[in-house]
Amino acid sequence: MKDFLRIISRRWISRPCFLIWAVAVVFISARIEASTKQDIDLETQKLANSEKSLVVDQKNAFDYLMKISNLSSGALLTANVVNAHPGDTVDMDITLAPGNCSVASIQSTLNLPIGVTLKSFTVGPAAANAGKQISSQQSTFLIFGLNQTIMNPGIVASAHLAIDPNAFKTVYSVGISTPVISDPDGHAVVVSGLSGSVVVN
Length: 201
Known about the structure:
Blueprint: H1 2-12, H2 16-71, E1 75-79, E2 81-84, E3 89-97, E4 105-111, E5 116-123, H3 125-128, E6 133-137, E7 140-144, E8 154-163, E9 171-182, E10 188-189, E11 191-194, E12 196-200
Parallel strand pairs: 1-11, 2-12
Antiparallel strand pairs: 1-3, 3-8, 4-7, 4-9, 5-8, 6-7, 9-10, 9-12
Helix pairs in contact: 1-2
């Protein structure tokens, strides 16, 4: 734009009308640039608000399902919401709400989106206190023990996740897929899974 005005001023300095037109072009361009910036800022704010709403909605859903689990014959396995930046490594906790069930072992798979990579699993305190350990193959994990001790409500595992350095600033859903839970006698327990989220800021 500066080079354009320099050329115009050399060739048309004696033509006021054209100079007025050039000034008008600069003014309109500045208004368009300002309007575009406002639009970008508005869309960014909308995205931030939607991310916050998703986190709040998921927390409310988890609280509600915890109550349902305690009133029903089924258990609930859920991943939590974590905040991260591109290139971060974060821990996503996996929590058990057994309801009225006796839970001795757990198996499930994490469905990971592009941009989020699983590094490893570690056993959580609710499982460790019951003498359990964890093993995994890729994104499938198994929590078990050489005992029949039941697990109390709480964190049974943590997934260590790596966020791609080029990850977009958005919300990534991490699914709890095909959860399988058994009681001390090896009988299957009815269980539901609630996905977690990685909010990349």
